[in-house]
């Protein structure tokens, strides 16, 4: 009997060793394939070529947007003069509201003709700012961007720079205080904004949909809160010993898991509504899978490796069911026709089911970081192929692969460069 048990153990050990050998060979093969793929470096070169030409979001935008700049500032730090980057960041602080809020973006006054209720500041007399108040990621995007700038350049003096009587550090803290004072739900211990699609900035109640008003339905979502966790992590690293913000960070993390994570469905629910839903009572919104916010949650460290594998498999199923080209599919299924007054938010249009490299490439970065090299390489290929095919970085794509939006979108270039670099670095280790 003992001999039989020993024999079984030996067989099991040999089986495990065989599986490990196959996995190692497979892993080695994919690493070699990644490192030999010249198209990856070709797209990186194209991305660098676009980023070094400016700071506005893209050819379809005249503004410098902080949510976009935050996604390509690391590459800007490799290519552009340090002071030119700092100058762009400084304007956001110069235009900061008395309550600590941060504008979405700014543009030279003479070009301020889009239709926003423009914001002006004596500290930045040459610029006009604007803020899409339905969204709650401007403050967290700026904190993340400053962190990336300082980490890349080692320009820690910038944090002490005085802007209209306050240091940059104080202004970063003020930005966090704005979220606690004006966008925080004591009931759930999470921040909120208006109802939007995942990471989007268009609400359903009005035609343009970018201004928080009396028609807005306030809601809590994963994207805003995951962005806050990342920003708090960055702030705490820049300013060690920030006990208040450490406590806030830990509570936000816990409440995300408590209220937003659907353990049974292994996904984040779309919204917690504070004053009712804008959608019909018969509509089951929880069937929708929010890809972008989920990816940001992975970056924030809110999911373990097993959960990451599961949500990635869900995204791939969504891509297949929708007919989309890549993991950049924003959500699935999309909101039905007529649910948004903004005509661009039709099913599979714009943020309502468009295919965005801007977020899909961030998924690739996280997959590579967590060791899912085969998945990351497989899922980045459609993004690489369409950049080469279309000779550029489009803002988004329709589910049938047609490019749309800004033709030279720096956010897409920045995140794709980062994803490729992470993939290559992971393959070389």
Write a structural description.
By secondary structure, this protein is mostly helical. It has a single domain (45-428), classed as Glycosyltransferase (Alpha/alpha barrel), CATH 1.50.10.10. It is built from 13 helices and 16 strands. The chain has helices at residues 2-36, 38-51, 66-79, 82-94, 138-153, 168-182, 222-238, 243-260, 291-299, 305-322, 357-369, 373-390, 410-428; strands at 64-65, 105-108, 127-130, 162-163, 166-167, 184-185, 190-191, 193-194, 218-220, 261-262, 267-268, 272-273, 289-290, 331-332, 396-397, 403-404. The strands form seven sheets. Strands 1-2-3 form a three-stranded antiparallel β-sheet. Strands 8-9-12 form a three-stranded antiparallel β-sheet. A hairpin with a 2-residue loop joins strand 4 (162-163) and strand 5 (166-167). Helix 2 (38-51) packs across helix 12 (373-390), helix 3 packs antiparallel against helix 4 and helix 3 (66-79) packs across helix 13 (410-428). The protein is globular and about 80 Å long. It comes from Hanamia caeni. One of its GO terms (molecular function) is glycosyltransferase activity. This is Glycosyl hydrolase 94 catalytic domain-containing protein.
Distance between the termini: 45 Å
> What fold name stands as the CATH topology?
Glycosyltransferase
What is the CATH C level class, in words? Mainly Alpha
Whole-number count of domains: 1
Give the second-level CATH assignment, the architecture.
Answer: Alpha/alpha barrel
Sheet/helix structural class: mainly alpha
Shape: globular
User: Average pLDDT value?
Assistant: 95
Estimate the helix proportion, in percent. Answer: 40-55%
Q: What's the total number of strands? A: 16
Number of helices: 13
Order of helices and strands: HHEHHEEHEEHEEEEHHEEEEHHEHHEEH
Radius of gyration: 22 Å
Which ranges are low-confidence, i.e. pLDDT below 50, for 5 or more consecutive residues?
20-25
- In which order are the strands of the major sheet placed? 1-2-3
Please, what is the oligomeric state? Answer: single chain
